[in-house]
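Predict structure. Chain length: 207.
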Amino acid sequence: NRTQTYPKFVQDIRITRAKLLIVEPKFLDVAMRLSSEREIPNAVLLGEQSDAFPDFKTLVRDAGDQIRMTPRANADLAIINFTTGTTGPSKGAMLPHGALVTSYLSGMHWAGMKSFERGLCPLYLFHARGLSIVLTGLVAHSTVIMMGEPWNSDRFIDLMERYRPDWVFIMVPVMTRDLGRNPRFAGLDCTGVRLHLAGEPVHPEVQ
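Prediction complete.
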């Protein structure tokens, strides 16, 4: 989360008792500080290598098959994913393996998502729902188009026109309000697009 303060990084690491930090290169300085202050025992870079940390992709590629999968039970914790605090303080969503898989399978069946369909994800991967949308798409064997950060209504419209997605999964109402105020939105062809809203009550303006 590019807006997160250093004390919040420290707090999240201490709460989760994380042992490995996977870092985008743009957060290298933060990772080096966390490592030097012994807040995290191990850190790797995603897609790059530096004098400070190895490249995560290289480590995974060279890993033996015996360490790729570890024994786990449905009740074992799988992820603690922190929300952005859209509607209040940031919360750590704790999901065990069993609930995680059930959530994605049920989301796929409930939504009626098909493998030949395309979904546009406007949320960020550091958001609990952003990551779950990507994994739901993987379970459905469908295509997920990541918008990335930061939110921008013009860029969203550009992606809608370029990829013609079947789904927009999931938007929060503050995004839809911003989108509706964009002069280009009135000319956007949304025929056949299914939209899921979450995160807060849907205001009459958005409805």
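Summary: The beta strands are 20-23, 42-45, 77-82, 92-96, 118-121, 143-146, 167-171, 194-197.
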